[in-house]
Amino acid sequence: MPVGLSKEELDRIDYLVAARRKIKRGTTLFRNGEKFTSLYAIRTGFFKTCVASEDGRDQVTGFQMAGEVVGLDGIVNDHHTCDAVALEDAEVCVMPFDRIEELSREVNALQHHVHKIMSREIVREHGVMLLLGSMRAEERLATFLLNLVQRLHARGFSQSELILRMTREEIGSFLGLKLETVSRTFSRFVEEGIVEVKQRHVRILNTDALKDIVNPKAGC
Amino acid sequence: MPVGLSKEELDRIDYLVAARRKIKRGTTLFRNGEKFTSLYAIRTGFFKTCVASEDGRDQVTGFQMAGEVVGLDGIVNDHHTCDAVALEDAEVCVMPFDRIEELSREVNALQHHVHKIMSREIVREHGVMLLLGSMRAEERLATFLLNLVQRLHARGFSQSELILRMTREEIGSFLGLKLETVSRTFSRFVEEGIVEVKQRHVRILNTDALKDIVNPKAGC
DNA sequence: CGTAATGTTGAGCGCATTCAAGCCGGGTGG
DNA sequence: CCACCCGGCTTGAATGCGCTCAACATTACG
Questions:
Q1: In chain A, what residues touch B217 (CB-CB under 8 Å)?
Q2: Which A residues 87-146 touch B at CB under 8 Å?
Q3: Which residue positions in chain B have pLDDT lower than 70?
Q4: Residue B42 burial by Cβ neighbours in a 10 Å radius (0-12, 13-18, 19+)
Q5: How many other CB atoms are found less than 10 A from the CB of residue A161?
Q6: Of A155, A177, A174, A168, whose CA–CA distance to A48 is shortest?
Q7: What is the set of domains in chain A, with CATH numbers?
Q8: Could you report the per-residue pLDDT of A69-100, keeping only the tens digit for each?
Q9: Which of A144, A179, A182, B60 has the fewest beta carbons closer than 10 A?
Q10: Rounded distance, CA A63 to CA A85, Å?
Q11: Distance, in angstroms, between B43 CA and closest chain A CA?
């Protein structure tokens, strides 16, 4: 995770990982109400996190992929307040939080890294709030696609092609839209020649057009 | 902040506060793009934090009052990514973040406290995402009022009366609504006898009715 | 006291939702 | 191998909630 550590420090970081755990597609890594013990670094696979309101509606709060950390919600009350569900078979590193705190006291780089991870999540959520609070359907979906493909590209995948690991309903929940609206908006993008969509396989034909939908300044 | 500390530890916590700073109403504590140096504990007053999209629209991400901490967004990139604006004359404790990290290594309770504050912010934002993603106007405003009054009550204020420190537009921005919709929804609550509203002064007449709007299970 | 900022209310509109029907693709069993 | 089924997806038509635009009221403030 952090870089620029001594060999000794790196050895100690290994101590953080108590175990690896495999999660089958469709099952939960943790669930709302469960006792919080650990953070989880995703090694492989793809997750969604979601919170539920009292009356059953639920909201997807994010999609996480390899290299990202889930479980931060549990720290505050010693219990998780959301579900983390694997959208494909996955493997995670289990990092007991007391070990993280213990080692953070001795390895400054780790301490700062933990703070940055939490801060990054806060900033990410600010972006989602902006999306949910002020964007129209097309902007939301365009933002979503650009964000996904950018994260995948950072992991060595294509800049223009991606496979959605989630259903239209899950995308809709995340974006504050109904699944029909997600589907319709995809169709509109296809009509306009911006993307090709074949079920969950998406190919972005015109990245600039997507960026223009998100931020229509160049067009004016 | 944390409780159950030794006298010596408490003395050291004082060291965290490099200064106090007074912020006049309408001015910013920090602004998007500014260098991040410190977290700020609000002593008195009331703030909003807001992020801006490229094309000018902005989204209020939260309202903060005495005892709450702002500035967490800056840790990730060493620069702030949102504005913190005082909605009334305010005073904050300036806590340089390097001192926080330094002392966190030695005072376990402080370390854990910092982690909890960040986790709490993440969980709070999950709640906002649920609101923005799936609630209708009445539910949003009811949730907002209940949340505000609950936090004020925890600080010794009334359970049923509050003074809004923000405009209708700011409420709307936070809730993902236009100011007219906020105003109309207030009016509807008044018609139904749920609240009294005189400009920014709000008196809650029927808390249960508000709760019922948020979570309409009791009514079915 | 006058001006600007803030808040309320009305009318009409548009985008996303709701409800409904049908399609597609993958997996299973006869 | 094909028929069938089921979950996920698409598309259409009608509805409605919140938005836009506009006029006016009220308050804050210099």
A1: 54-55
A2: 101, 104-106, 108, 111-112, 114-116, 118-123, 125-130, 132-134
A3: 1-5, 217-220
A4: buried
A5: 13
A6: A174
A7: 7-130 (2.60.120.10), 136-214 (1.10.10.10)
A8: 999 999 999 999 999 999 999 999 999 999 99
A9: A179
A10: 10
A11: 22
